[in-house]
Amino acid sequence: MVDTMAGNQERRIEICENDGDVASKLCDYVINKANESVKKRGIFTIGLSGGSMAKYLCDGLPERVTDWSKWRVFFCDERHVPYDNPECTYSIYKKNLMSKVALKVDQVFPDDPGLSVEKAADTYQKTIQSVFEGDGLPRFDLLLLGMGPDGHTCSLFPGHPLLEETKKWVAFIKDSPKPPPERITLTFPVLNNTRCAVFASCGAGKAQMVKEVLEGHIDPPLPASRVRPTKGELVWFLDKAAAGLLESKALQN
Ligand SMILES: O=C1O[C@H](COP(=O)(O)O)[C@@H](O)[C@H](O)[C@H]1O
Questions:
Q1: Coil, helix or strand for 20?
Q2: 69 C-alpha vs ligand 1 centroid, how far in Å?
Q3: Which is the closest atom of ligand 1 to the Cα of 149?
Q4: How far is the CA of 238 from the centre of ligand 1 (A)?
Q5: Concatenated DSSP letters for 185-237?
Q6: Which end of the chain is more exposed for a tag (fewer CB within 10 A), N or C?
Q7: 250 vs 2, 198, 203, 208, 243, CA distance in Å?
Q8: Which positions ≥6 away from 166 have C-beta within 8 Å?
Q9: What is the 40 CA–ligand 1 centroid distance (Å)?
Q10: What function is annotated for this protein (predicted)?
Q11: How many C-beta atoms surround the C-beta of residue 14 within 10 A?
């Protein structure tokens, strides 16, 4: 269904049968966006998230058809840990996606865990700048986002001062409430400048937070509800369990 948020922005909510169905529809969506972006602009710029998003994508993308050579792959956030740490999002994708598709090393842009987290955030911003033309805010074709049970997205946590960042494209955090404590993350100015932001959430454990984010009026708003691309699409893929507490009648059919 499509509904309208404050400011007349539209948001699409896709309710799927289960998490497998979410993964499948999400992957179809990503491939369509990739092919459309390549057709229009000759390139596809995407930002990946960790956690459950990595599983959905690694399960479904390898078997799908796209011109991988046109992809430029970034990370919406990253746990600032060595590549051999199981928490490292880049390494999860390297093992389960990049090793299975024709993505070359120079098309994927990971965090550098060898730097201090402050320097790493700064360097990551410069890396983004080197791929996107011009000095303005980068406009990603697609940012794939997860939402934690506390309403966080990327490494932007409820009540954290990073939510108010207006200048930096990439910020560092040293006191993440969810371990590991050191991370780098895209900031809201970049998230809300994307052509398309997509969330995927599954399971009854996320239902209360999905309801808060999509229908609640918590003030100040939770990080996931602050993702509202100013000139772009916003889509949520949910399974029935995660959508179970939503009130809108259209969603219960
Ligand atoms: O720590 C993180 O959590 C969020 C949400 O993960 P999920 O497993 O609850 O979907 C994720 O989007 C983010 O990239 C990650 O660093």
A1: helix
A2: 27
A3: 9
A4: 15
A5: EE-HHHHTTSSEEEEEE-SGGGHHHHHHHHH---SSPPGGGG---TTSEEEEE
A6: C
A7: 10, 20, 20, 18, 12
A8: 187, 188, 189
A9: 31
A10: Hydrolysis of 6-phosphogluconolactone to 6-phosphogluconate.
A11: 18
Q: Which residue bears the tokens 């990253």?
A: 78
User: For each of the chain's 253 residues, which pLDDT tens digit applies?
Assistant: 666 665 556 799 999 999 999 999 999 999 999 999 999 999 999 999 999 999 999 999 999 999 999 999 999 999 999 999 999 999 999 999 999 999 999 999 999 999 999 999 999 999 999 999 877 999 999 999 999 999 999 999 999 999 999 999 999 999 999 999 999 999 999 999 999 999 999 999 999 999 999 998 889 999 999 999 999 999 999 999 999 999 974 454 4
pTM above 0.80, yes or no: yes
Structure tokens at 119: 């320097």
Closest residue CA from atom 6 of ligand 1:
51
What are the pocket residues of ligand 1 if the criterion is a CB atom closer than 6 Å to any ligand atom?
49-53, 77, 79, 146, 148, 154-155, 178
Q: Pairing mode, if any, of strands 170-173 and 183-186?
A: antiparallel
Q: Ligand 1 centroid to 178 CA: how many Å?
A: 9
Q: Which domains does the chain have, with CATH numbers?
A: 32-245 (3.40.50.1360)
